[in-house]
Amino acid sequence: MKILFYGAKNYDEQFFLKLLPEYPGITFQFIEANLCPETASLSLGYDGICAFVNADLGTKVIEVLSVNSVKLILMRCAGYNNVDLTAARRHNIKVLRVPGYSPEAVAEHAMALALTANRHTHKAYIKCRENNFALNGLMGVNFYQKTAGIIGTGKIGLAMARICRGFGMNVIAYDLYPNKGLDFLTYVSLDELLADSDLISLHCPLTEQTHHIIRQETIDKMKDGVILVNTSRGGLIKTGDLINGIRDHKFFAVGLDVYEEETDFVYEDMSERILQSSTIQRLLSFPNVTMTSHQGFFTEEALTNIAETTIQNAQAFMNGEELKNEVTS
Ligand code: NAI
User: Fold this and answer.
1) What pLDDT does 149 receive?
2) Strands 186-187 and 94-96
3) Rounded Cα–Cα distance for residues 292 and 139 (Å)
4) Quick check: is 249 catalytic?
5) 297: CA distance to ligand 1 center in Å?
6) Cα dihedral angle (44, 29, 35, 271), rounded to 10 degrees?
7) 10-19 and 300-318 are packed helices; what angle lies between their axes, rounded to 10 degrees?
8) Annotated catalytic residue within 97, 120, 203, 233
9) Contact 270, 244 (CB under 8 A)
10) Are residues 19 and 28 in contact, defined by beta-carbon separation less than 8 angstroms?
């Protein structure tokens, strides 16, 4: 079984190559190019392709994969909002993913962003390096006894809820499908969560329903001085409305690991380029915004689990076994 691994970074190769000898019959070819309409044709001769969150798996790409007789799309991530599942089904291409490789990795990063944005650690570090030991501009707020609002209580949302509990926070949550019998959080309506939370952390997937769940109308319902963290998907937040909210002093701090325009830059070194879009620069120009580049998942434990589950998904497909990580809708 031959798999073409798109968008390979050195750390991907390292973690996959460590495990592959345990899975005879499966070979991976790693290429740096990411999957998009221009590179989809490289899949000729492969049984499957492996792609990440920043790949383009729209209708056009799926059609090329189908013409090349590719039968399997291995997503080495949890989210799959970048895959045209209808087109994949039409062409009888199976889509498999890694549902929960390390919820704690993302949740811990969400808390790191919340703390960094709140306590201005990123600025304090630079100030200290320049022998500026003044505290002006660095004041934060306590999380202890404040209210954390978790939107989406799946694997990552629950891990974040537990972390917030550990900080002595009161945890409230909103989910379309609440879990029963949890004693460390209370489910409320979305409106209640927006009104009562001091820290709001987004952990629902990007769907038609959640697209721009954070927009002017929902921002208006938030407490003044709220801290907002997004480690889920950029499309959950309408960026223009967020910028307006920041200008209106609605937010004490904002921490973003994902943002709407990230697909063109994420995981690329663009430091020598002149970027055509100014949204990221506008966000970063605000003193209370902290950004990272979709690195919530990036821990040794998560990369090991991603490699293991992706290869096991390929093996299950190869052996005609039950595809427990198949994405159908
Ligand atoms: P999950 O599938 O375990 O949980 C998602 C939760 O959101 C479920 O409880 C679901 O009922 C809820 N939900 C769905 N639609 C909703 C709606 N309209 N309103 C409220 N809740 C809704 O997913 P998991 O593993 O917790 O991941 C969450 C998201 O985190 C992923 O979809 C992905 O976008 C993002 N992610 C980000 C990473 C990063 O590196 N920054 C890494 C991995 C995932």
Assistant:
1) 98
2) unpaired
3) 21
4) no
5) 13
6) -150
7) 60
8) 233
9) no
10) no
